Amino acid sequence: MGPLKNKFSIKCSLSIHNLSLPCPFKIERERNLNLIIHQSNSLFIYFEVDVREKQRGGEREEGQERDREREMTMKNNQSMSIDAHLRLVAPEKVSEDDKLVEYDALLGDRFLDILQDLHGYSIRELVQECHELSVQYETERDPSKLDELGSVLTTLDPTDAILISSSFSNMLNLANLAEEVQIAYRRRNKLTKKSFRHEASAPTESDFEETIRRLVVDMKKSPQEVFEALKSQTIDLVFTAHPTQSVRRSLLQKHTRIRDLLTQYCAKDISYDEKQELDQALQREIRAAFRTDEIRRTPPAPQDEMRAGMSYFHETIWKGVPKFLRRVDTALKNIGIDERMPYSAPLIQFSSWMGGDRDGNPRVTPEVTRDVCLLARMIAANLYYSQIEDLMFELSMWRCSEELQARADELHRSTRRFAKHYKEFWKEIPSSEPYRVVLGDVRDKLYNTRERSRQLLSTGQSEHPADSTYTSVEEFLEPLELCYRSLTASGDRSIADGNLLDFLRQLSTFGLSLVKLDIRQESDRHTDVIDAITTHLGIGSYREWSEEKRQEWLLSELKGKRPLISHDLPQNEEVADVLGTFKVIAELPSDSFSAYVISMATAPSDVLAVELLQRECKIKNPLRVVPLFEKLADLQAAAATMTRLFSVEWYLNRINGKQEVMIGYSDSGKDAGRFSAAWALYKAQEELVKVAKKYGVKLTMFHGRGGTVGRGGGPTHLALLSQPPETINGSLRVTVQGEVIEQSFGEERLCFKTLQRFTAATLEHGMNPPISPKPEWRELMDQMAVVATEEYRSIVFQEPRFVEYFRLATPELEYGRMNIGSRPSKRKPSGGIESLRAIPWIFAWTQTRFHLPVWLGFGKAFKHVIEKDGKNLETLRAMYNEWPFFRVTLDLLEMVFAKGDPGIAALYDKLLVSEDLRPFGEQLRTNYEDTKQLLLLVAGHKDLLDADPFLRQRLRLRDSYITTLNVCQAYTLKKMRDPSYQVEVKPTLSKELSDTNGPEELVKLNATSEYAPGLEDTLILTMKGIAAGMRNTG
C-alpha cells in the first residue's frame, strides 16, 4: 500500500512504546517525521507526521523531491526496521533493566535518518536490506543468505560501496556506545540495590569496596592488615603504542560525546525540552562522526602516538586518580580505618612505551625519544600550572604556622612586583595571605618549568635556566607539604585534606614527567654495538664468542674503569642509533625514564651488555634492566637464565635486592598457540619466584598483555586472580595497549572502574591467593601442552600449504593499509610467519572471525587425554570448577568461539582460496567445530555463553552488523586480487543532498590508490568496522 496523502499535524510528543492504536497494526519504528506501521511484516501503511510548522528555507522543492522518491520506493518495500531486526536477534530481555536493544535502535534510527538526509532514501533502504539479510543469516545460519548479500554488495557502484561499508562501521561504533551506556546503567542499578549477583559481577567488576568488605568479613582479615597491604602496594600501568587502535582520535572524541549525550537523553529526570535539545545534540554528533573521514591517510609518527596517549591523562586520568584515591579513603573508613592513604604511597603509577619502544621500529629514533620526554614534561607542568591558581584561591587563610610565615616573609621580600602574564594574582600578593605567597612562588617555578620544556622541544635551547625550574619531585613537594603541615597545625586539617591533598597525590603519582618512559630494544642490537667495540679494540668479534666468554669480558669491564667508546669508533646506522639512545637517557632528567626492557633476551650477557653501555654513556642513574621472555623456549629457560644472572655477584649487588622480569603473551602465543603459551607463562612465573626467593630478591612481574585473547587479553580482575600464588605480592606492572587504552580510560567512569579493578585484584591476590594446582592437574596440563604445541606447530610452521592458505584466506597482506601505527608489521622485511608480528597475525584471523591462533591445539589436547583415560574428563571438569587459571583460560576460549563463525571463514575460502587449498580450509573448520564441542563438554555447558547471557546478547547484536562488513570485505578482496573477476555495476543510488559536491567525491579521497576507484577505501572501512564490532584489532 502506498503512502496516505493526508498529513496530521501534532503538537505533542509521541512515544511508540506507550501509544495505543485502535487497530491490529504493529508499530515497528519511530523517526522524526515518519511512523511506519505494518501488519505481519508485509502490509505497510505509511503516515507522514508533520511536526514542523514550515519547511526549512530554501529546501521545500528538495523535500518534495525526496517525498516522491520515498513514495516510489515504499510501494514495494518489504524491509523491516533496525529495531525489528535487533529484536529478532535478541528477542528477550536478559534482565529487568535491559535497555540495550532500545539504546541500539535509538542510535541506529538516528543514524539512518542522517544517512537518508545526506544521501537519499534509496541508500537508507539498501543499508536496511543488507542488515535484514545479515539478521536472516545470523538467525538461520543459511549460507545462501551470504550469497544473496554478496550479490547485493558486489554490484554496487564504488561510491555506494564506500557508503555502505562506512555506514555499517559507524553503526557498529554506535552499537558499542549503546553497550557502554547499558553497562553503566546496570552498574548504577546494582550499586543502588547493593546487588552484585548478576553476571558474577563481584569477581569480574572488581568493586573495591566490595573486595575490602569481603576480605574483612568473609576472610577474617583485620582492617589494619588491609591498610598495610594497600600502603605497600604498587601498580604500574604501562601505555604502549601497539598498533591496535583502528579508530582515529578525532572520532574517539566524538564517540565520547555521543556516549555522554545518550546517557543524559535516557535519564529519567529530564524535561521534554531538555530531551529535544539532547536529541538535536545527539544527531549533530552522530552526523559529525559520519562526515569525518574514518581512514588515516598517512601513518602516525611516534610523536603522534604519544600525543594521543597523553590525551587520556588530560581528559580522564589526571582528575580520575585523586577521585579514586578518595574512594579508597572512604572504603577504609567504612572498615574502621580513620587514616587516609598517605599521598606518598605509590598505589598507582603510570609509564609509557610511546616513543621509547624501538624494537623493530626504525621510526623511533633518539630524537623521537628526546621529543616525547620533553613533551610529557611540558604537559605535566601545564597540568599543575592550570590547577595552582585554583589552589591559591582556596587557601586564602591568614592563620598559619611560624614555619610557613617565615617562608612567606622571605619570599615576599624577594618576589617581583608584577607578572602580567598570569591570569590571577598578577600583582604583588600581600604578606597577610601567606599561603598565597608560598604558592605564588610555586606558580613562578611551574611557569618556568613549562616554558623551559617548551623551548627545548622547539629550538633545543631555553632562556629559562634549570635552577629557575623544578628539577626534582622532592623540590616541588616541599612547599606543598609545608602548606599541608601548616593547615593541620592551625586546626584546618579538613581544608588540607581537600584540593591540596589531591594536588599532593597527583604529584606523587605523575611526578614532573607525567609518565616515565621505558626504553625497549632487541638484544641483537646491543650485541651489534658491543661487537663493534671489541672489533675496534682488536680483541675479536663479541658476536662469535661463547656465552661464558661474553660474561667474563663484560664483568671485567664493568669492574674496571677504562673507556671503551672512542670518538673514532666505526658506527653503522644501527650502532649509532643504539648509542644515541643511551646518550639521550644521559642528557635528560633521570625521572623521565623507568626501565630498559630487552626483548628476545636469552642469556645473562644480554642484561650485562646493557649495564655496560649505560656506564659507558655516562648515565648517572642507570635504568633498571628488564629481560623480556616471550617465546616458548625462552619462557621455559627463564628460570635458568635468571639463576645464572643472580649467580653473578656484581649483578646481585647492583640490583639491591629488586628485579623486574617481563613475560610476553603475544609472541609466546604465536610461537606455540594459546593453550601451551598460557601454561608456559604460568609455570615460568612459579619458577622465577622460586629463583628470586633463593637469592633474596623481590621480584616484580611485568605482564606484556595485549587486548585480544590471542595476545593475553581478557577481563583484568580474572586475569590477575588466575596468576600463580606469590607472583604478584603487591607489586605489578602490566601493559595497556592500543584500543584497550580507550576501553579503559576513554571516560571518567571507565578510568575509575579500571583503577578499581587493578587495585582490588592486586590486593585480593596478595591477601587471598588462588589455589595452586594439584599434582595430577599439573601432570594433565603438561601432557595437553605437549599435544597442543605439536598440533599448533605442525599446522602453522610445518604444513607446507599453511602460509599460502593464510595469505589467501585472510586480509593479512592488506593490514598495513590501515595506517594505524608507526611500527612495521614485520620485524624483518622478508620472512614468513616467524617474522610477522603478533598483532597482524591475530588481526588477520579476527577479521575473518575464525580466530585460529586462539583455539588451535585445544581440541587435540582435550581429545588426547580424554581418550587416554575416561576419568580425565572428570578431572578436567574439577580443574574448571576449582582452579581459577584453568577456568579463566577456558572461559576466554568460550568467548572467542562465541565471537567466531566458521561460515564466514568459509565464504572467504570460497571467494579467495584456490581450489587445491580449499580442502585444507575445510579440515581447519572441522577442527574448529570439534574443538568447540570438546570445550562445551569439559566446561559442562550446553551452549556457548550459557553462563553469561549479557555478553551473549551483546555479541549477537553486533554480529548482525559485522556480517555485512565481512561479506563486503570478502568480495572487495576478490576484486582487488583477481583482475578477471568482473560484475555489472548498478547505477549510483546515493545522492549528495546537502551540498554542491556529488557523492563521487568520496572516491577521490584516495586518488593515488593502485586499485580500481573505491576498492581500497571500501576494504579499509570494512577492516575498521569489523575491528570495532569484534572490540579488537589485533
Please describe what this structure looks like.
By secondary structure, this protein is of the alpha/beta class. It has 39 helices and twelve strands. The strands form two sheets. An eight-stranded parallel barrel has the order 5-6-7-8-9-10-11-12, surrounded by seven helices. The protein has a four-stranded mixed β-sheet with strand order 1-4-3-2, with helices on one face. β11, α26 and β12 form a beta-alpha-beta unit. α3 (100-119) crosses α11 (272-290), α6 (158-193) runs antiparallel to α38 (949-977) and α6 (158-193) runs parallel beside α39 (1015-1030).
List the helices and strands and how they pair.
Layout: E1 7-9, E2 26-30, E3 34-39, E4 43-50, H1 60-74, H2 82-89, H3 100-119, H4 121-140, H5 143-153, H6 158-193, H7 201-205, H8 208-218, H9 223-231, E5 234-240, H10 249-265, H11 272-290, H12 302-334, E6 348-352, H13 366-394, H14 402-414, H15 434-459, H16 473-489, H17 493-510, E7 516-522, H18 523-537, H19 547-559, H20 573-587, E8 593-599, H21 604-616, E9 624-629, H22 632-646, H23 649-655, E10 658-664, H24 666-672, H25 674-694, E11 698-704, H26 716-721, E12 731-737, H27 739-745, H28 748-767, H29 775-796, H30 802-809, H31 838-847, H32 852-855, H33 858-868, H34 871-882, H35 884-899, H36 902-912, H37 918-939, H38 949-977, H39 1015-1030
Report the sheet with the most strands, covering strand number, pairing sense and barrel closure: 8 strands, parallel, barrel
Q: How many DSSP helices?
A: 39
Beta fraction: 5-15%
> What topology, given as strand order, has the largest sheet?
5-6-7-8-9-10-11-12
- What is the SS-derived class? alpha/beta
Query: Which percent bin holds the helix content?
Result: 55-70%
Rounded to an integer in angstroms, the radius of gyration calculated over CA atoms is: 31 Å
Distance between the termini: 49 Å
Q: Based on Cα principal axes, name the global outline.
A: globular
Average pLDDT confidence is 85
Low-pLDDT runs:
1-60, 66-78, 192-205
- Total number of strands: 12
